[in-house]
Amino acid sequence: MMQRSLKTYLCLIASGLASCATPAAAPRPPCEITGRPDRVGCVGNEPITVSEYEAAVHDFLSVSFGSDPVARARHQNRTRRNILERTIEQKRITVRARDLGIQVSAQEIEDELARRAQNQGADAFVLSDPETIRRILRRKRVLEVSIVDPDPSDEEVRATYDRLKTQFQLPPRFEAGRIEVDLKTSGVSRPELNGLAEGLRQAETGRENLAREWVLARTGSAYRPRVWLELKAWPREMRQSILALAPGEVSDPIGAGRRIQVVMLWDKVPMRQLEFAEVSALIRKDLRDQALAREKREALRRIEAQIGVLLQPSYRRLLEADD
Fold it and tell me: Could you give the number of structural domains in the chain?
């Protein structure tokens, strides 16, 4: 197994330079669905047949619900849609492997799907749509959402500080990767700062240096804490500069963001760190809601245009249906 995995890896690297030991298959004719009632659709030039799709649906319902007709009927549509989505993903992997001249087994495809589910967390089109993410999370009673660049440059951080400085009359002090307020010029007393720091420490267990990275923004006679966090110890894919605002506010400090922050304020929890998978789960569930039906349909059309997925009309309607 290890030898085969190594061979696959080397083939992937060398695919543009030399042929692998397994010769590439001859080009396949285009996959058609017109006049083919035996096909659910096509992914690239790989057909999805009605028989293989129905067999997968039957197997899943049998394993999950046995012979209970009520349970099978209740979960019929959702199961059919989920199996269709999974079959499309399986065909994508098959087509890509064949293009590279690599033979993959059914188990290897399942392993790859499991790896993608673990690593990606949310669909690519969700990650690219910060406004949708904001609306979903706010409806889920997440009081604070910020979509930010995962690895901003010093220039971007400086530009953000300059904007905040103008907006909130902050003192002109800047350090790369961190924003601070000078106690001597900000009008914030030491007891106020200590109280803020203690509150943050209680809310964020284990982050002792959290209170050192913050901005206080003045609104009238009161100060609202604005905390700039730089989680340098996290893995790169999770290392994000996060701007945590006062409850109820939403901000995108660096422009069109590309990731979801992992620190949010919840309804009854002062501050809680969310794993990315938890955020993904919220988004995936909410994408079935009627309120996002139009946005989801548009996103699905964009995806299908990119990957070359053709579906018979009835199966397309199934994929786009809302619970």
Answer: 2
